[in-house]
Amino acid sequence: MGNGYRAYYDERTRAFLTERWNTPLGEQVSQEIFRGIVNSVDLRFILERYTLQTKIYGAWFPAEYYPHEHMAEGEFWVLHGYDLRGFFFNEVNDYRGTASFDKMCLDYAIFPKGTNLSGLNLEMTSLEGAVFYECNLVNTCFAGAGGGGTKFEKSDMRDVLLWDARFQGPNLKGCDLRGAYLEGCHLKDPVLDFRTRFDESIVRQWQNRRIDDLEAARIYRQLADAHRSHRFYGRADTYYVAERRMAREQLRVELRENRRLAPKLHSMLRLAADYVSDAIFGYGARPAKIALWSTATIVVFGLLIWFFDLVSPSPSLGSALYTSVLTFATFGLGEQLSPDGDLARGLIALEAVLGVLLSTLFIVTFARKIIRDQ
Question: Which of 130, 212, 262, 290 is found 20 to 30 A from 1 (Cα to Cα)?
Fold first, then answer.
């Protein structure tokens, strides 16, 4: 129950899971369940009275297989005391302070619009095809829960606990998941839209648990892939950069732990290259950074040319900046100016090299974003 991607049911079984609650006995049990919820009664005690008693392959139920021969019209039974599959939670809309739903099987259950499940314990629940539409799920515990096709559309999921939860294809359109704790959480092929919100910097602490750098990198990679698959490239780039920075922290750990000279030097080179990559062009995701570095290079070299009179004749500040632009763009110094001394030649050559490198990086990074965004 829970902690898995999918529970597969054939069409006949799925129909039975919902239709059984519309039978006379099913409606009676539904009322018992709602009274139990209001009075904080453990729902397992209610459901166990209606457990199907039959043998399959020599073993007594409960089991997660629904025998078709017991699905006659008008029949009502449950597999075990955890079986609330297909239940429609329509008579109570505020479940705060009610009995725990932990470990319950809520596949294909429906929580209608406006249902308040804030702070409820849904730990280890099975949620295949369950519907939470515009529900209040603030601070709700889904630790170890899972299922395929679960619909959380437009729900408020701030501060939700998704520790070790596993969902395949969950509908998270319009959901606010800021403050969610995502350690061990696997969201495979989630459905997102522009209103879906996650933290740009994930929550790393919950009670006495803390997400380490390696797990944080995995979470950021998962979020980047999810947003990239929906063409939300700006957010995908944000999580990609965060992932790379978490990976860099792992490099720093390696550097501290290495005692041998060769591995230590290798880690130092990788770490230095990582810092440079982040600072100059944001791991290929931030062409604006290259533009800023290019502008700074032109201004700094222009000021050096003006202040130290590195070219002849002595230039004004405007002429020095103009000269710096021409040098950066590898157009030369112009016809009227020439470098004055070896230091001037060296600095001008350095700016030309930097101009080539930064211009190439900008073109490649910007073109990548343009092609990707088409």
Answer: 212
Residue in the block written with tokens 């096709």: 149
Mean pLDDT across 341-349: 88
Query: pLDDT tens digits, residue range 267-287?
Result: 899 999 999 999 999 998 899
Domain formed by 11-211, architecture? 3 Solenoid (2.160)
Identify whether the C-beta of residue 199 lies closer than 8 Å to the C-beta of residue 178: yes
Asked which of 53-57, 143-147, 256-260, 351-355 is least confident by mean pLDDT, the reply is 53-57
End-to-end CA distance of the chain: 43
In whole angstroms, what is the distance from residue 190 CA to residue 111 CA? 20
Predicted TM-score (pTM) of this structure: 0.86
Name, in order, each residue with C-beta under 8 angstroms of 54's C-beta and a sequence gap of 6 or more: 61, 67, 70
Angstrom distance (rounded) from CA 140 to CA 52: 31
CATH of 287-373, one of 2.40.128.490, 1.10.287.70, 3.40.50.150, 3.20.20.30: 1.10.287.70
- Residues in CB range of 111: below 8 A, 6 or more apart: 89, 117, 130, 131, 132, 133, 135
Beta-sheet pairing, 146-148 with 166-168: parallel
CA dist., res. 89 & res. 91, Å (int):
6
**Within the chain, where are the H helices?**
11-19, 24-38, 43-47, 213-229, 233-257, 261-281, 287-307, 317-328, 342-373
- For residue range 181-199, list pLDDT tens digits in order: 999 999 999 999 999 999 9
